[in-house]
Amino acid sequence: MARAARGDVTVAVAEAGRERAAAAWRVAQEVAAAQPVYGRTTGVGANRVVDVEWEDADAHGLRLLRSHAAGAGPLVAPEIVRAMLTVRLNQIAAGGSGVDPGVLQALADVLNLGLLPPVPMYGAIGTGDLTALASTALCLLGERAWLGGGGADGGTERGPGFTLRSADALAFISSNAATLGEAALAVTDLRELLDASIVVAALSLFAVRGSEEPYAPAVQEARPHPGQRQVADAVRTLLAYEAPVPARIQDPYGYRAFPQVHGPALEAAAYAEDTVTREINARAENPLVDVAGRTVWHNGNFHTAYVGLALDSVRAALFQTMALSAARLGTLAEPSFTGLSPFQAATEASSGIMILEYVAHSALADVRRLATPAALGSAVLSRGVEEHAGFSTQSARATTDAVGAYRIGLGCELVAAVRALRLQGRTPAGGPLKSAFDMSAAVLDPRVEDRPLDTDIAAAADLLPGLARILRQAAA
Predict the structure, then answer these.
(1) At what angle do helices 78-93 and 177-207 cross, to 10 degrees?
(2) In the CATH scheme, what architecture does the domain 2-175 have?
(3) Which of 12, 248, 303, 316 has the fewest CB atoms found within 10 Å of its own CB?
(4) Per-residue pLDDT tens for 371-398?
C-alpha cells in the first residue's frame, strides 16, 4: 500500500475484486427495494428514522455528498490522500459496500494519473472519513476540481469522471480510508526507523567501548520477551566481528537496558502493523452487504478503536526508546566515554556537537507531547445517537508527526557516533556493522571544525532506511 501511495507502482484492479464488488452492488439494490437500508432508503445520523421518498431518491445522495464535503484547515499531504484512495479502492473490491463496481477503475485511473481530491486536515474523529471521501466523490462527479499530483493549489479541468449513483453515496463515504492510509504509512516508516535504531545504537556502543554482556543469550533467556530477544540478537549479529574489551563493568541504561526498552517498541509497531493490515483488507462497511446471505447488516465495524489504541501504544513505546537515544547521544559528547575532547570538539573552546543534544531533546519533547493517548477524547454527535469516538484519526496524525521527530533525533545520534569513531581512528572490523559505518562515513561530512550541523542531521536522517536494510539483510 505504501508503494502505491508514494507513486512507485501502477495500480490495477483484479477481476476477482470487480466480481466481488459487482455481486455486493446487485444484492444491495435487491435488499433496498424490499426493506429499509440505512443511507440508501433513509437519512443518516439522527436522520436515520427519516425515509427517503422515491421521488427524492436521485437527489438525496448528491445532497449528502455536498453537505458532508466540509472539511477545514490545511490540505493533508499528497501521499496520505493517495493512501486513502488506495485503501478505499481495496475496501470496495472486498465486496461489502454495495457501491457500483465501476468506481474501482475510476479510482485506479485517478491514482495512475497522479490526481488528488482536496482533503483538508480537520473533519474526522475515527468513526468515518466522511468529509475526505465526500470531497473525493464530488471530484468523481465533476463538481469539484482535482488537484494535480504533488498537491498543487490549482485544480485541473479534466479527470476520470464517474456517475456515482445517489443510492451509493453513503456507501462510498462510510469508510476510514484516510485514517487507515495515514496509519499504514506511519507504521511502515516507523518499523523501518526502529530497525535503523538498532544499527545506530550498535555504532554508539562500539564508539563508547560498551559491554556486550547485556545482550548475552543467557540474559535474554532469563526474561524471554520476543521484542527484547530480537533486539539483543540483532546487536550480537552486528557486533559479531568485534572483540572489544569493555571500558566499564556496567554501562548507562542507554546501552545496558536497550533491549528491554526498544523491544516493546518493536512489538507495539508489529501489532499496529497487523491491526492496520487487517483493517485495510476487511469488509468494514455499514451497512455490510452480505452476498452469501443476500441481506445487509447494520453494525459498528466503522469504529476504529483497535487502530487508535494500537497507535497510541506505539507512540508511548516510541518515546521510551527515543529517550534512550538522547541519553546515548549525551555519552557521545562526554570525554569519559569517548576519550575525546568534550563535545568531540576540535579545540577546548569549541562547541563541536554540543547543539545536537539540543536538537535531539527538542524532537524528543515533541514525541513526548504527541504520546498523549488520542483515545482519551470523547464526543457526542448527531443529536446524541453517535455518542462515542475513538479519535483514531488524531492518533494516526500524531503518529506521523512523532515518526518525523524520531527520525531527526536518531539522525543526531548517528552523526555523533560516526564522528566519534572517525576521531578515535576506529572502524568496525567487518560484517554488517562495518557496512553501516562505511555507508554513513561515505555521506557524512568529516570536518570537525565548528560549523552548521543542520546538513549533517538531514543527511544522517536520509541514511536511516539504508541502515535498516543492512540489518534486515543480516537477519535474513
Answers:
(1) 120
(2) Orthogonal Bundle (1.10)
(3) 12
(4) 999 899 888 877 666 767 888 999 999 9
